[in-house]
Here is the input.
Amino acid sequence: MNIGVLGTGVVGQTIGSKLVQLGHTVMMGSRDEANPKAVTWAKQEGNKALFGNFAGAAAFGEIIFNCTLGSASLDALKQAGAENMKGKILIDTANPIDYDGDWSLTVCNTDSLGEQIQRAFPDTHVVKSLNIVNYTVIVDPEKLLERTDIFVNGNSADAKAAVSSILRSFGWKSIIDLGDITSSRAVEMYMVLWRVLRVATSSTRFNIKVVQS
Here is the structure.
């Protein structure tokens, strides 16, 4: 499958590299088509790794990952172009975090970044996922000592099923469908607790496990 990854940070590179390892062809997109991080990544990953600008990566991908900084996601996706994402699945991994001082959310309670993206691109099937874990385990859940849960949120059942298939290829075995895109509010708000847990445990390798009676 051809997959577009928007964003050249550690999340985008980690997901992009895993997808290449799984046999997909991946184009990493950035504002600048010749972004040094994207160019270096593509050279390291071989002939199934490509680079381009946001629009090029969105047009290339049958499925698209948004791995941009949450504060820049809407602008990046506008550069990617609604026409290049029409009818496609967009997996949104971003969080609307203000990183100054103690983390806070720039949108919460009555809205979420996931919802904002879905409203801005109504012809795209937005699925929120992978935003609750650090890049060190995002495609390597087996690094955790126990099986934990990952979530999908979105309006399209078919899109969530397709995303769940990709998540399983990453190694995630327990995937919980939290409902429509409004449930993005819950997983985005969890990130404030995630930051407190990171400080308290001096670790980034942890995740949620839902234990039922």
Summary: The helical segments are 10-21, 36-45, 54-60, 73-80, 82-85, 113-120, 157-170, 184-201. The chain has a mean pLDDT of 97.
